[in-house]
Write a structure and sequence with these properties.
Order of helices and strands: HEHHEEEEEEEEEEEEEEEEEEEE
Distance between the termini: 71 Å
Number of domains: 5
Structural class: mainly beta
Number of helices: 3
Shape: extended
Helix content: under 10%
Radius of gyration: 33 Å
Largest sheet: 6 strands, antiparallel
């Protein structure tokens, strides 16, 4: 009896094991099929647009990438570990009373008790390395007048250019100096001098194609009068600080108590090919086309709903052999217009366009005077949106982002009087635009200056429509708590209302213009973040 009991138990365990293995194999097959349908290929080879929702879905549905460190931390995990504030790790639906899921925030789940879990797909500058260098420049300046004393020297570094090589940055620029000196006639004279410089700074990890931020400073100037006061001998110490960054696309976590920053959120990306055909008459008959160099120039983009319209010019350099057996050159251009589907794109968003000429097919007519061309152009488009988010801090990747210090809005009314060239009976329209915006950040406020450019259209007493321009300079300020000199200010302006009325004669137009200024003050900061790996999706262009 005991024998049959153990036999039945053994057969039951064996059957259970077989069923479990079958289920594992089926799950693995499903996973392989899913990976096959979305292989981790570069974005440019996708045949359909990739949207931010695709990335978020991958984040929600692929939980195996979470590290043991995160599981132990209790923030997000798999198996017996819970998603705090989330009812299901597959749907990312918030638990009742634990926050709201906002698609506009990239699927972030905000816990009202202060704990947050969520990700954003961002394009963000990653700090590769930084270094500073000091260098002494020696120069002699022939003075226009014999000097007995140097009163003052103002020096400023201008026209900075750079080139990034492997592990170093080549820097070139000029030092503009204003020299004030006392002549033997006891008069203070002024003289300008420009000194050119060029040197390199070692930055391990730097590579061509990255971006450098250059911060120059004239640290010290020692002037000395020589040759009985006719020549100014100068020793000047220049300090240049260099930071190299690279734009990368990555998933980063958000947190309620994280750093409040302004970043670029990826909305979607897509690739499309367009065939551009053209015909050109050569200046002389050709017997053979030897080469065609082409590049895309004059690119214009416009974002409409779910699409990006791209226009541009393909500039070509055509090299051919003439009937005289000499190679000749001829320039030609082809214009093109195309649109690319980007679900989620809206007017006002930002576009990054990466064009590439894949193939050029030249076909020379039998008479050698006409050249037919087919150009295959590939357009990779990425659409991003500038957003403000709370970025979770902590990790091994150092990024440089603008941290939001404060923002404020102010309305200002400006009054002006315009004498018309012709007496008017009616104003048809007044168009106003704010131009030449300049700003200076002070402690607790931002000074704004600019010009209101107005186009006045009016009907004269002879019933003819006339036009007259007017420019009105303005200056105002907006209070922003926390603002300090050296910070950055972003100004958004709007002409909210224009009120106008004539005098009794009709030759003077009184105007009241209401302007609105929205000011955001930011400061560049470096924070450490921890990218989240999402499979099977991979970004293509950083």
């Amino acid at each position: 009896m005991e024998f049959y009991f153990f036999l039945a138990l053994y057969l039951g365990l064996l059957a259970g094991t077989v069923l479990a293995m079958k289920r594992i194999v089926e799950n693995n097959n499903d996973l392989l099929l899913a990976m096959a349908s979305h292989p981790p290929t570069p974005r440019r080879y996708l045949k359909s647009p990739v949207t931010r929702e695709d990335y978020i879905d991958a984040y929600r549905n692929n939980t195996a990438f979470y590290s043991e460190e995160k599981q132990k931390g209790g923030m997000i995990g798999i198996g017996d570990f819970e998603f705090p504030g989330i009812e299901s790790e597959l749907t990312a639906k918030p638990k009742e009373g634990q926050g709201e899921l906002s698609p506009s925030k990239g699927g972030s789940v905000v816990n009202t008790h202060g704990q947050v879990t969520g990700i954003e797909l961002l394009k963000i500058p990653v700090v590769i390395g930084e270094n500073d260098v000091q260098r002494m420049e020696i120069s002699d300046l022939d003075l226009d007048f014999t000097a007995q004393k140097i009163r003052h020297i103002d020096a400023q570094v201008n026209d900075i250019t750079y080139e990034i090589l492997n592990h170093k940055v080549i820097i070139q620029g000029s030092i503009q100096k204003q020299v004030f000196y006392v002549g033997i006639d006891n008069v203070v004279h002024h003289q300008e001098e420009e000194t050119l410089f060029s040197f390199f700074v070692d930055v391990p990890g730097a590579e061509p194609g990255m971006t450098a931020q250059i911060y120059p400073r004239v640290e010290f100037i020692r002037p000395e009068l020589i040759q009985e006061g006719d020549v100014l001998h100068q020793k000047m110490v220049i300090e240049i600080f260099v930071k190299v960054t690279e734009i990368r696309q990555m998933f980063l976590e958000t947190a309620v108590d994280g750093a409040f920053v302004k970043v670029e959120r990826v909305i979607g990306e897509n690739v499309s090919q367009v065939l551009v055909e053209g015909q050109v008459d050569l200046p002389i008959p050709a017997v053979k086309i030897t080469d065609i160099d082409a590049q895309v120039t004059d690119i214009l983009t416009e974002v409409i709903e779910d699409k990006v319209i791209v226009q541009g010019v393909i500039q070509k350099q055509i090299f051919f052999i003439g009937e005289d057996d000499v190679e000749h050159h001829f320039s030609d251009s082809l214009s093109f217009s195309h649109f690319i589907d980007i679900p989620g794109a809206e007017p006002g968003m930002n576009v990054q366009l990466y064009p590439a000429i894949e193939h050029i097919k030249p076909e020379l007519a039998p008479d050698g005077e006409t050249l037919n061309q087919e150009v295959v152009l590939e357009l990779f488009v990425k659409v991003t949106e500038t957003v403000q988010i709370n970025l979770a801090v902590g990790g091994q990747v150092l990024v440089k982002v603008p941290q939001i210090i404060g923002e404020n809005v102010r309305q200002v009314m400006l009054e002006s009087t315009l004498t018309l060239d012709q007496p008017a009976i009616k104003v048809k329209e007044v168009e106003a635009a704010i131009e030449n915006i300049r700003s200076v950040v002070l402690s607790g406020k931002v000074i704004i200056q600019g010009i209101i450019h107005k186009q006045v259209f009016f009907i004269g007493q002879d019933n003819i429509e006339y036009h007259q321009e007017e420019e009105l300079p303005f200056s105002t300020f907006v209070d922003v708590v926390g603002a300090e000199p050296g910070m950055d200010a972003q100004i958004q302006t709007r002409v909210e209302h224009i009120h106008h009325e004539f005098n009794e004669v009709g030759d003077v137009l009184h105007q009241k213009v209401v302007l609105e200024f929205f000011v955001k003050v930011t400061e560049e900061v470096q924070i450490n973040v921890r990218p989240v790996e999402v499979q099977p999706y991979e970004p293509y262009l950083e």
